[in-house]
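Posting for a labmate who doesn't have an account.
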Amino acid sequence: MARSMGAVRLKKTNPITLALGAALCIFILYFLIGSSGSGFSAARQAAAASHPLSPPTSPFRKSTGKAKYKAPPVAHYNLNNVTITSNPLEARENILLLTPMARFYQGYWDNLLKLSYPHELITLGFILPKTKEGNMATTELQRQIAKTQKSGPEKDRFKSIIILRQDFEPPIQSQDEAERHKMQNQKKRRAAMAKARNSLLFTTLGPATSWVLWLDADVIETPPTLIQDLASHDKPVIAPNCFQRFYNEEKKAMDERPYDFNNWQDSEAAQDLAKKMGPDDILLEGYRELPTYRALMAYMHKPDGLRAETVPLDGVGGAALLVKADVHRDGAMFPPFSFYHLIETEGFAKMAKRLGWQPFGLPNYKVYHYNE
């Protein structure tokens, strides 16, 4: 026996509800479509890499679909076409800005955004340790990157950004300044720093890179024209003078003092000390136990000196350091071992010199380190 179905009556929908539903659908569609893009102009999107295995310094936009990628195309690069000039802005040369980071400093990131060199020509590379502080720094770094790259003005957005995590344990857990600079911690600490720098460099150096700017995560103030200023000297390796602002209790006013003592000219005393050392011993700067009597660029600064004055160096620090990419391509790296009794950035300077690349410094051109 068939059962009869009664008529179904539909309740009339409120027009306001329909309007809100339509608006929500539009918003969802806009979010899904808009978030998949970079938000860049058509010109910058056209320069994006089409495959994830493209050179690491090329910008890459993830696909929104589920389709599998085809095999990466075979690409040919003629490095003879990569220019490295004293006017990188005019030549539109690509800059690789590399930072080993254990702590995140907001002043560092704010200073990056103030750099006047076109951000579309700057690739950022970071390496962070897998420690509690390193995890916190990574979280904050990613937050700032998302804020800048997704919602910030296009002029602030960088060409591409790479974040690496160290695959080795840090030699010391604390990043406090006093602990970092203890003499007994230096060899293992500097060796670990060298490994981190090398990992970062060899992972990110691309075929289109002209200059590599090393900038420490605790350098929070530089001239906006830092890249153009350093490159204008056309030196293979060049370092500004790193100072630190502090409150002078005697003067009852803000003052500044030298900070980085790894930019130096060698001395006979230091060479004599090295001759008495074992093959694995390293010569450190700034410790009473090792009086080197080197000429430190930190003390060459003259208040009325020319900012463009250059001096040849035998050792360099890594607070801020501009390097022609060809120097690194030629094999100059950061030795994590005793290299002529030098290690890390000072060992890099020695290696660069032995390859024919003379480092220079700018005693009257200052950048500023965070004051803990």
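Reply:
Got it, the structure tokens are right above this. Residues 1-11, 24-38 have pLDDT under 50 and may be disordered.
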